[in-house]
């Protein structure tokens, strides 16, 4: 039986608290930002402007606002106009969108205050609400957030369900505390995240009405990525094209007699919290799956969908992945950036250096899920550029030994006027950073090829899911449901068994070929490429490391081998002396592997060997090579590499296959070089090989 209008108007109302979050990684490509403005940010704001009663919250990361203010002032003015008439409530957050729990307390406060001040100056609002980056909750952030003037923040309903709350109780807000500092929390409705904007507006209305309370206090929160409205696949035509989803949604909500749009500020002043809540360290479900080690992630995905098929509520409440910080375990490259940031954050910093530090705290580069993240070389490039700018302003020269990466083993850091270098004693006494202080480029910024959980299902839907790849009458696919084109041309999948650092020591049973080098199948006999060295000696200009290991044929030990590596940090160059000693007569092949990241395209960069120039995506083998040169306009000066004796040199482009919002990407991560030669040692004999990396000369 149809309900009458009078019955609808007398039935209890339900509030919709709506928010949009927009962000782009620090220094992302201008064409990406232009595309996002054209496809999403501008048409969304223009549409909302025509409906003054459509009230919602808005969060833009600070760097994105700065870029829009300079490059798309009309979009910036749209925000200002709606802010001035009270249509939008602007939320604050970390200015450069850090994971707050991953940065020090003083930087948490500083980043939030920086964005709040910018909002106050440009839009005349003093923000009370906080957008929590990637909804990564850790109660340790509460004191800093409250100190920065925030009264309430946004998390997922998943956080509450993980803490034991019933889904039906998540229609308002709660209070949490840490050390007596109180913060109000709003749970985002997962159901609304998957209906807005992907399903017909009626489905959103139905869900809202299901949660109405007789006292009229019920409120459901939607706060999600603005890029869902036009940038994500299929959404531009759906939201703004002939389908005109956004207009229909706004009109449906405004016309419904029982649905009220309300600002978060008004709701907080009008309604008391539902109670107190203490939430576990977590984010949304997908993040917990992405941060697991890849082999476990595949099993986790299958297990979750098996449980969900039988009992969805049980799966949601009890089946969880890991925490965001596990990305720092899963990806050593992320940990290297993060710990470089923490070290710099501990130094006395002026205003310019602190802003550079804040820029280097941008979250996107430190993780990987459905978006490229760490796999995008430009994001790693930008992170190192910002942190190296901070290093240039605040660092000091010298050689320093300590556990800077917090992995239980000492790292060696060296700073001259020309460069900053970092080497890991845990990973084979290898260099993992060599940053030019003039160009601020880390020339060793190469990503290791590793197995990812989605590699086994390229072109297949997630376990238990039916892919939605085309628009129908009821909606379109969420980005989590889209399936990549099975016809995409992707490179073969190869995985590295050691980090793609530089000065990796290989002892091989036979002389390698370019095919075996590409496949990471070097017939390895030694245990030096991924094992720890001890720091033996250090002074102001050099450091000596040693490992006593061996050569093996399967389980049989062929010889005891000691490798010593002395790094001499000269003014413009790094000299590496490798000394090898055996306790038995041996014949093997020694290889020294180096990995360099050449950031520019093939038209703006090249590799030069024996007077021949060729692009970075070239696979090659040369004999009798004593030196080669890398040139890239972003280096500002050529990088020259020398060996003490002529050796065979192999090289190939390091390519990865990674998941992205568009499907799967084949991405150049660096170029791998292997200098190799026969090595014959008599018992007790030492042989020395020397290499030199130099900027310019």
Automatic annotation (TrEMBL):
<feature type="domain" description="Alpha-amylase/4-alpha-glucanotransferase central">
    <location>
        <begin position="323"/>
        <end position="393"/>
    </location>
</feature>
<dbReference type="InterPro" id="IPR004300">
    <property type="entry name" value="Glyco_hydro_57_N"/>
</dbReference>
<dbReference type="GO" id="GO:0005975">
    <property type="term" value="P:carbohydrate metabolic process"/>
</dbReference>
<dbReference type="InterPro" id="IPR028995">
    <property type="entry name" value="Glyco_hydro_57/38_cen_sf"/>
</dbReference>
<dbReference type="InterPro" id="IPR011330">
    <property type="entry name" value="Glyco_hydro/deAcase_b/a-brl"/>
</dbReference>
<dbReference type="Pfam" id="PF09095">
    <property type="entry name" value="AmyA-gluTrfs_C"/>
</dbReference>
<dbReference type="Pfam" id="PF09094">
    <property type="entry name" value="AmyA-A_glucT_m"/>
</dbReference>
<dbReference type="InterPro" id="IPR015179">
    <property type="entry name" value="A-amylase/a-glucTrfase_C"/>
</dbReference>
<protein>
    <submittedName>
        <fullName>4-alpha-glucanotransferase</fullName>
        <ecNumber>2.4.1.25</ecNumber>
    </submittedName>
</protein>
<dbReference type="InterPro" id="IPR011013">
    <property type="entry name" value="Gal_mutarotase_sf_dom"/>
</dbReference>
<dbReference type="Pfam" id="PF03065">
    <property type="entry name" value="Glyco_hydro_57"/>
</dbReference>
<keyword id="KW-0119">Carbohydrate metabolism</keyword>
<keyword id="KW-0808">Transferase</keyword>
<dbReference type="InterPro" id="IPR014718">
    <property type="entry name" value="GH-type_carb-bd"/>
</dbReference>
<feature type="domain" description="Alpha-amylase/4-alpha-glucanotransferase C-terminal">
    <location>
        <begin position="403"/>
        <end position="689"/>
    </location>
</feature>
<keyword id="KW-0328">Glycosyltransferase</keyword>
<dbReference type="InterPro" id="IPR015178">
    <property type="entry name" value="A-amylase/a-glucTrfase_central"/>
</dbReference>
<dbReference type="GO" id="GO:0004134">
    <property type="term" value="F:4-alpha-glucanotransferase activity"/>
</dbReference>
<dbReference type="GO" id="GO:0030246">
    <property type="term" value="F:carbohydrate binding"/>
</dbReference>
<feature type="domain" description="Glycoside hydrolase family 57 N-terminal">
    <location>
        <begin position="19"/>
        <end position="280"/>
    </location>
</feature>
<comment type="similarity">
    <text>Belongs to the glycosyl hydrolase 57 family.</text>
</comment>
<dbReference type="InterPro" id="IPR052046">
    <property type="entry name" value="GH57_Enzymes"/>
</dbReference>
